[in-house]
Structure formats: structure tokens, C-alpha cells
Amino acid sequence: MPRILRINCRTKEYAFEEVGPYVNLGGRALTSRIINKEVPANCHPLSAENKLVIATGLLGGSTAANSGRVSVGTKSPLTGGIKESNSGGLFAHKMPKMDLLAIVLEDKPAQEAPFSTLFITDEKVEFRNADDIVGMDNYPAHDKLLAEYGDKLVAAMIGPAGETLRKTATIQFTDPYKRPARSAGRGGTGAVLGSKKIKAIVLDPAVNNKVAAVEADTFKAARTTWVNILKEHPVTSQGLPGFGTAVLVNVINEAGALPTKNFRYGQCDHAADISGEKMAETIEARKGKTTEGCHVGCVIQCSQQYNDKNGDYLTSGFEYETIWAFGANAMIKDLDDIATMDRICDDKGMDTIEIGNTVAVAMDGGIIPWGDGKAAIELLKKVGTDDPMGMIIGNGVVAAGDAFGVDRLPVVKSQSMPAYDPRAVKGVGVTYATTAMGADHTAGYGVTANVLGVGGTVDGHKKEGNVELSKNLQVATAAIDSMGFCLFVAFAVLDSENGVQTMADLVQSYTGNAFSVDDLVALGANAMKDEQDFNERAGFSKVDDRLPRFMEIEPLPPHDVTWDFDENEVQGAKA
Amino acid sequence: MPRILRINCRTKEYAFEEVGPYVNLGGRALTSRIINKEVPANCHPLSAENKLVIATGLLGGSTAANSGRVSVGTKSPLTGGIKESNSGGLFAHKMPKMDLLAIVLEDKPAQEAPFSTLFITDEKVEFRNADDIVGMDNYPAHDKLLAEYGDKLVAAMIGPAGETLRKTATIQFTDPYKRPARSAGRGGTGAVLGSKKIKAIVLDPAVNNKVAAVEADTFKAARTTWVNILKEHPVTSQGLPGFGTAVLVNVINEAGALPTKNFRYGQCDHAADISGEKMAETIEARKGKTTEGCHVGCVIQCSQQYNDKNGDYLTSGFEYETIWAFGANAMIKDLDDIATMDRICDDKGMDTIEIGNTVAVAMDGGIIPWGDGKAAIELLKKVGTDDPMGMIIGNGVVAAGDAFGVDRLPVVKSQSMPAYDPRAVKGVGVTYATTAMGADHTAGYGVTANVLGVGGTVDGHKKEGNVELSKNLQVATAAIDSMGFCLFVAFAVLDSENGVQTMADLVQSYTGNAFSVDDLVALGANAMKDEQDFNERAGFSKVDDRLPRFMEIEPLPPHDVTWDFDENEVQGAKA
User: Fold this and answer.
1) Extended strands (E) in A238-387
2) B388 touches chain A (CB under 8 A)
3) 3-state secondary structure of A246
4) Where does the Aldehyde ferredoxin oxidoreductase N-terminal domain lie (chains A, B) (predicted)?
5) Predicted confidence (pLDDT) per residue in A503-541, tens digit
6) Are B68 and B55 contacting, i.e. CB atoms less than 8 angstroms apart?
7) Contact B393, B380 (CB under 8 A)
8) Which of A358, B71, B218, B563 could form a disulfide with B509 if both were Cys (CB 3.0 to 4.6 A apart)?
């Protein structure tokens, strides 16, 4: 019987509640509903009235392939709007084994209160003293938790960035390899956890209640169909496992959409130095691993283990967006410098996209030279300390722009853009513009039809078809995020005749509740409506659905395309 | 024949233009019209597309008492909305003597370009090398300009805060005593001038064209009526000249509306130490001056000269809001420390209200101890340097709150509140909420009827009547700001039967154009409409007309009043 666990971080009271009004919701649909219904839209994100929700998807705990993502929802310190950021790792798969659908963290103690580690069993919650890990980076702190709780540790935690309430702060989750390498990356969710004085959340390793599909035989059949769909598509079966997401460096560069030097150019001269091919070659030479999964049940395996020059583990979950942000956008050529920054971001608990863009802004402001990886590394190390430069860098692009006097800021709703220039990939541009999340490629990945030829073809340089493309992808993605699926299943689903039906079949047979394709679409659309409603009440207007002015007036080489949608033209992409 | 001077700060081209579509506008009505019509609402405030407009009022250059205020308009770096900030000093009175109604600064050079001093005559503009004053504080830099241009210097300039593009940066104007002590204080206008690489603007001392009223006899009669109105009212003839605006410390404290310790309390235990009475006593003991005017033709004389312990000049234009911000809100008891900070703010070119609130936020965040004036002084000195702490402090309350993790931020539209707690003075609270300027007491000073019994009486603790009060004051104020009047004339006008008619008579007889009381009201209302239109197109919605959440849920002692208007209830205060 799934339950919602509510924890008051000030009084330390807690309650395991029935799901009540939140029945038939999961993942993003659940976090966004709770935030929209329960959090005053105009509260400060770091104030006592904000809440942090951690939820498993509708398929959480099941054996359906790639269904183990965990959703984190809150009012974002970065955007001031609603936020759902999801992550791999073991947390979402574990929650149902404790009969937990969601954990809702409420209220906060005085700022001078000590940090706690929340130890959660299936019947109680303990606020344990966290003095031994406070101030520590995530990897060493996670090692301490491993030593204390054993190899079956399943934890969520914040690093120094979250402790110091930085807007780039992530929540890091234990991955299948005993590392805190999976991130709910965007929007500063870690700062909200920090404001509630929670350093880590540990799920009791001793509790592992049995989880089974209600309609076991139907579920088993659907599961097989599902795995075959994923294994038959070239992107999910070859591209992603072979080179990780970094396979995109050359692809997006070739398309003239790889934002370079703080979004000045669409191609980067040193793309080959930071490509997925180069990464795979480097990993193999150093005896790392080119393929790993980020959560139980993953059949795509797009993660990896990247070793340093000595062959020692350096980082994993080393994504295209990270490599792009530091590599192309901040002009850093050395893949080892970039990998080091990825590790620092995981250790401090910072969003690599926001931080990479921030480094580019710092370079634009003359704080450090363009392309200087070593100087960038030193900047990153300041975050989480009492150095005011770290306060600035740790708060992301807008804070850095304001501090350094840079007016070229590639942000929407104060969140910086990922690795696709919207001028040349307008399908994802419409998503950046209209999603309640701020600039976010994962909210409706129009790169599919604009560049990859997946799910049809829509010209990314022209307006035609891109609002509809973005809308359809946004709805589908919100559903995917609510079921607990990894977004990458979309590649296969978009090109599969029965992909969507199979997802619906999985949910229906797992939960025992009727769940049609229409229900799936409604799940996604309703999540978006909750998010849009919250943002409207938080003060966003349709004008906030514009991209930065410089993209309207400055053509992007080499294709010399500008952003020519106004706010009215993109409203159709909303639910 | 009044003209508009347009200067391109990148190409250094300029043109003296007829006023064309901007006929019959002046001051704020003119700056807001130009910004609304000519600046893309979604541009970055520090980008080339933003403009900075300096305008004299409809009565600029005339001998009408207290009509010499200068308006500065731009898209605000602090709020992201439209901004008009006006100042005393000699600039507005001088412009008509050069046949100038407005100066419009457009475009900007590369950020690495050197700063210039603009030397403006009645027929040409020179970009002069400013190397000798770049990086200098306003007082010493102004002394250098005095040495170069002589005692008839009339200048506008920025200090290190403006040069470094800080959001609190002011533009300082030459006052009648050869000091750069008058500020267009709010909203970061100085950063816009800095972005255009202009350190100072000097109006040619040699040009002094004759300015005369078109209907000379009528004007002369109206002028006499006008002076008598000002001289008959106790506030403008006794309260303000006697103690300066600081007369309000005890008055507002007594009313329980003096925001104390970052807006936690409505009364301050050490109010007597920072009162106008104490200030006057100190000034007299040190042989300063208790009364001075800020511009030619002032008959109110609310300014002063505040000397240090050695009897040497320290500061002037030492306002109630400044004393409150550092004294009550940041809990600093020593009036000399506060005066020193006032001077530092004038020297660096920073808004004392925003900076005082920022110091309180820094104290709330544990950066320096509460009430520590010496530590606060050291913080202020960092602004304009390359110290990242100075970047944070110089960017105001929101930047400081974000950097220091403080969620108690007394701001509306990102501009911090002045010296009147809106929970206890709801008339001014409605103004904070609804004016396009962000929290700004000067946009509609409801303290009049709420506390001072001027212009009637409206209970400041209750909702009733306060929306109407604010609306009427906002329209009147916008008209006052457009004619070039000092806001303080409103005290007398509100209690005078023929005050408004006299103002209209002055404009009609001075300009020779028909100008009725209805025209006066329309002038104000249309200025507000321009401002509201711009802000809406810049992304503001009516939700932005709420006050900070903490004021909705936290009663203010001693009267235990909260802010209980929602955004819909205050819309009636808009034009």
C-alpha cells in the first residue's frame, strides 16, 4: 500500500499518510500537483512554506526496463517557479519496497540549527546528527555513509553547494556502483533541502518489502514487448551505449547548433577534442567503462566510468551537456579538465549545465580567460566556501551576469540553456520558451525531429511545425517523467507503432488500475497544467515565454538563423 | 526652442532634434514616454538597446519655486522594469538655458572601451577622455571637473558603482554648493550610464541662453501665489527646514511604522539617537548648516550640511530614508557612522535606501554583526572594486539575499522598501505594490493621510480608503515629477484649495500652451500608463503587485498588523 511520508523539518514530527487526493499520480505529476496545491506560489523558495517532494514514478519498484527515475519537486530557488528535476540512482526503486510513493519535507528549523541525516524506515523517521559529514563533498560523505549503513546504502544528499543554499545546488543520489553520481540537477533543489537543514536522507537498508505487479502475467508480457522496443532502436541500442550522450557533440556541431563561446557560434573548432568518440577512446585506453546503467533495470546503459590519466576513477554520468557547457561554450579543450569539473560538480553538488554556462559568463566578464580550464576549476572550488566569489558562481548565470556586468545571458525564466542553440533547433527552442521549468531540453526534446530524424522530420531553422512538435513532446515527456521512465525511452517510442500503448499496458498491469493511452496523455498534460498554474500564480506572464533578446537580433553562424517566435506564437505549446 | 539631444555612445554621433511627438511632455512623463516607445521591453538593461534619458520638467529653467528637479529614465538594471528617478541639483535648471528639453543616450561601445566625459554645448557634443577621473569617487572627481571647467560647473556623473555596473548605482548631480551631492538614486540608473562608458556629462558653463515665461505677467502672479502656498504650510515652512526629512524618525517610530532589524519591528529602541532633533543638535554644535536647498529656487530648504567631529564637511542631503536604513533597519546607533555611510554612498554613487537594506540583509545572513557601523562601512568600501563581496553588496538586496541565503527580503519588483513599513502605513504599501517603479515611497506618499494628517486622514492599519488614496497620490506625483517640482510641494498642495490650479497656471503661463487642471491630471495618469505598459511588455503581471510573503503572514509589532491586500484588491491604484 503506497503511502506519503510527511516530515516536518522544524518540529521533527512525521506521519505516514494514505495518498488520498493524490491517488493515481506518480513522479513528476505527483510532485507538481503537491507543490501546486500546497505551496503558496509567492513564498520565497528558501522559506519555511516551501516544500520538497521526492517521489517514485507510477512504475517505481517494478521490473519494467528503465522505469526507476526519481522525481524531486519544489519551488525553485533558481527560477522562482515550480520545478521537477529527476534523476537516476537507486532511490526510486527502493521507495516502493518501503511502501513509499512520496516523501514530503515541510517547514524548516532556524538557519543556525545543525544539519541532520534523516534515517527513514517503513515505520519511523529519525533525525540523526550529521556533524561528521557536514561541509564534506559528496563522494567522501557518501563513503562515510557507506561505512555506517553498509553496502546496501540508498541515499539522497547535498554537498557544500546545497548546504550554503546555492541556486545551482543538486540533490545527489546513490547509483548502482555505490557512488553519489546521479543528480536531480536543475533548479537548485539541493538548496531547498539545505534550507531545511537536511544533509542526507538514508532509506533503511533492512526494509525490502515485496513489490509485485497486480496483474503479473500481463505485466510480464508487456515488459518483454517493452525491452524489445528499446533494443530494436539504433539510438537506445547502439548510439547511447557506445558513446554515451556525448555521441551528440559531433552530431550537434555538424548541425550548426552547438552553442559556442557563450552562444556566439553554432560550431566549435575543437569539437573533435571533446566528442563522444574521443571520450570512448580515452576511457578504453585508461581501462574505464564505456557503458554503465544509472539505475536498476536500465537496458540502455548510456553512463560510463571515466578514469584519470593514472587509471583511477574520476567521474561517471559524464553527459553531453556537461562536456558541451565547459568544452564548447566555455571553450575548454582538455577533456580531462572537463571531467575534473564534472567530478567537482558532483562533489560540491552543482548542476553542470548551469555551472558550465556560469563559467562562460565569467569568461565573458573577464574574470578568467576564455578556455582556461585550470582557472575554471579554481572558480568551481570556491563554491560552498565563505568566499564571495563562490557565492556568485554557485548561484548560476544570472547571478554571475549581474556580478560581472555581462548582459549576454542565455536564460529563460532565469535558468540557463542547455547544449542546443534554440535559433537552429527551434523545436527545442519552443520548449525552452514555454515549459514551466525554464530553459530545459529534457522537457520536450525537439532535437529528435529537428536534427536526429527520430519521430519524423521538422526543419529546426523554420517556424513551421515546431510549436506542435514541442507540445507533443512536452506532454509525452511529462507522462514519461510521471511513470518513472528514463527520458531516453522516447527515442524508441517515437519510432515504434506500439510504444505508447506498451507503456500504458505496463502501468495498468503493474498498478491494477485502468490506464489507457488517453490516460497517459492526460497524466502528462495535467502535470503541465499544474506547473503552468503555479507559475502564473508566482508571477510569470506569457512575456516570460520569450527567449533572451540577443537571440532575436543576433544571427547564429553558420546558418545565420535568429529566434523569430514572439510570445504569442509559442503559447500553443502549453497544455 | 526646446530640443532633444540624441547621442550615440558607440558611434559618437549626435543630433539636436525638434521634440516632435514628445511635445507638451516634460520630466517623468517625457522620460517614461521615450523609454516606452523606443526601448525594446525585453532587452537587457545593460545592453546596447537600452537608452538613458535625462529630462527637465515642464517648468524647468523657470523661476517657479521648487521646480528644478531633473528626471532620469531608463529600463532599470535593478527591477527589470521602467524607471524614473529624479534629483535636485543644477542640471534641470541649466538645460533650458541650452535649449534642451532632454538628452537621450543611446547604444554603447564595447565594454573594454575607455570612459568619456561628454561635454555638451548648445550646438555640439564632445567625447572627452575621462582617464583622469575614471575610478575616482564622486567628490574628488567632481573637484577635478571644477578645476577644469570652473565654478559654474553643472555636471552629472557616476562613481565607481556606476562604472562597475552595479544595480544600486546612482547618477550624481552638481548641487548649488559645488558638490556632487544630489542623486537620481533608485533603480541603478548609474549602471546604465556606466554601460555606455560615460563617466560624466558636463553642460557648457559658457552657454546661458535667456529663458522667459511666455505670458510673463500671468506667470509672475502665479509664482507669487505659489510661494505663499509653500510658505503657509507647516510641513514645508517649519518641519522640513527645521530638521530636514529626518524630522520623520520620531514621527514614524511613534506611529509604529519605522521598519527595524530588517522589517521585524515597527519601533526602534534607539530612535532618539538617530532622530532629526538629534541631527540638528549635532549639526549646530559642529557649526554645519541645518538648512540648505538642493536646487535653484527652493524655498523649502530641507537639506543641510553635516560636519564631522572635527567640524569638517562630511555630507549633505542626509535624508530620513538614509538614516532609517542604516540606523533603524540595520540597527546602527552612531549618527556619525551613518553620515559616513551617506558620504560613501554619494562618493561611490550608490542608492542609500537599497544599500542600507542590503547591509541589514548582510547582517541577517551573518556576514557582519547587527548594528556594527564600522563593519558596515568596510562592506560599502568594497563596492566599485574587484572584490566579489563588493559586487554582491553593490547589487542590492536581492543579490545579497541570494548570496547570503537570506529569504527575508523586503522588496517589490526587486527594489527594496523605503522607511515606512507597509503593514502599518497601507496607503504607501499600496504604492509600493502597484507603482511600476518597485517599492518606492516617492511614487505616492500615503504617509500623508495615514500618519501626518495632511490631505485628510485615512487609517493606515485598515484597507478602507487606501487604494483610492494611493491612486490619487500616484497620479498627482507623476504630474509633479513631470512639471519638475520637488515632491515636497505636495504637502502644501494637498492642504491648499488652489494649489493644483496654481501649478497648472504656472505651466500654462510659462509655456504659453493651454494647460488646465484636467491636463495636469492627464499628464500624471499618462505617465503611469506608459510605465505600466512597458512593464507589462517586460513580463510583469499583476502578481508582481504583491508584497513579500513574510509581510502577509508575520504581524508587525507593536500594532500586530499584516499586509492583507491581495493583488486584485490593489489594481485600482493603477492608472
Assistant:
1) 289-292, 303-307, 313-316
2) yes
3) helix
4) 1-207
5) 999 999 999 999 999 999 999 999 999 999 999 999 999
6) no
7) yes
8) B218
Say how far apart CA B453 and CA B468 lie, in whole Å.
16
Asked if A403's CB is within 8 angstroms of B550's CB, the reply is no
Confirm if A354 and A168 have CB atoms less than 8 A apart. yes
Distances (CA, A) of A303 to A185, A289, A298, A299, A492: 16, 9, 10, 11, 18
Residues in chain B: 575
pLDDT, residue A243, reads 86
By CB atoms closer than 10 A (0-12, 13-18, 19+), residue B386 is: exposed
Distance from CA of A544 to the nearest CA of B (A): 6
Mutation test of the interface with chain B: which of A50, A412, A537, A543, choosing the one with the most B Cβ atoms within 10 A? A543
- Could you give the percent of chain B with pLDDT greater than 90? 98
Q: Report pLDDT for B256.
A: 98
* Angle at which helices A466-483 and A499-511 cross, to 10°: 30
Amino acid at A253: N
Question: B524 with B482: CB under 8 angstroms?
Answer: yes
Q: How far apart are the first and last CA of chain B?
A: 31
Average pLDDT over residues A306-325: 96
Select from A158, A155, A112 the least CA-distant residue to A10.
Answer: A112
Buried b (16+ CB within 10 A) or exposed e, B559-568: bebebebebe
- Encode pLDDT of B335-375 as tens digits: 999 999 999 999 999 999 999 999 999 999 999 999 999 99
Query: What is the per-residue pLDDT across A164-187, written as a single tens digit (0 to 9) for each?
Result: 999 999 999 999 999 999 999 999
> What is the overall mean pLDDT for chain A?
97
Q: Is the pLDDT of residue B1 over 80?
A: no
Within 27-46 of B, beta carbons closer than 8 Å to A belong to 40-46
Q: Does A532 touch chain B (CB under 8 A)?
A: no
H helix or E strand, kind and range, residue A73: strand A70-75
Residue ranges and CATH numbers for the domains of chain B are 3-203 (3.60.9.10)
Give per-residue pLDDT as tens, B409-441: 999 999 999 999 999 999 999 999 999 999 999
Pick among B370, B541, B562 to test the A interface (most A CBs inside 10 A): B541
ipTM summary value: 0.96
Q: Which residues, other chains included, contact A87 with Cβ-Cβ below 8 Å and sequence gap of 6+?
A: A69, A70, A72, A171, A173, A182, A183, A184, A185
Let me know: does B301 contact B279? Beta carbons within 8 Å: no
Residues of B in contact with A40 (CB under 8 A): 549
CB contact under 8 A, A44 and B407: yes
Segments of B63-115 assigned E as strands: 70-75, 82-87, 100-106
Which pLDDT value is given to residue B210?
95
User: Rounded distance, CA A139 to CA A122, Å?
Assistant: 27
Q: Would the pLDDT of B77 be above 80?
A: yes
Q: CB contact, 8 Å: A391 with chain B?
A: yes
Task: Assign A244 a pLDDT band (cuts: 50, 70, 90).
Answer: confident
Q: Is-contact A52 A9, C-beta < 8 A?
A: no
